[in-house]
Hints:
Layout: H1 2-27, H2 40-62, H3 68-77, H4 79-107, H5 110-125, H6 130-141
Amino acid sequence: MKKTNKILQTLFYSTLAVSLIMVVLFEFDILESGIIAAYGETEFATATTMELITICSIPVVLRTFKFGFIKRSVRLGGETALRLWSVIRLSILCVLMTVNTLLYYVFMNVAFGYMSIITFLCMFLIFPSAERLKKEMEDCKE
């Protein structure tokens, strides 16, 4: 469990660090923000796509270990399967947060900023702690 917890916490904190670095670079004008803001059709298509992906992914991510096939996988595969599904679950939110943060600064559209904040908050609902991993493993064995 310690290895799984270490991997998940590394993923969690490295994603936060990458997003924070991105925010600092754009806010201090080291990177130019709003460089694609003039392309309205692209912005609309990107915003619509990211809204759908984000809104549909969050409930799935939060309920990952409630799905029968994932429970069976963890029951049969043990800690290895738990690690795999936990990394997949956290990675989805990490990618969504990072991409939405980048798109916010590229388009300067607040919708991306809100989606990034929402995924940031959702990451804390699945924070990788040793207690959570033990509980998820026990829940899958029931």
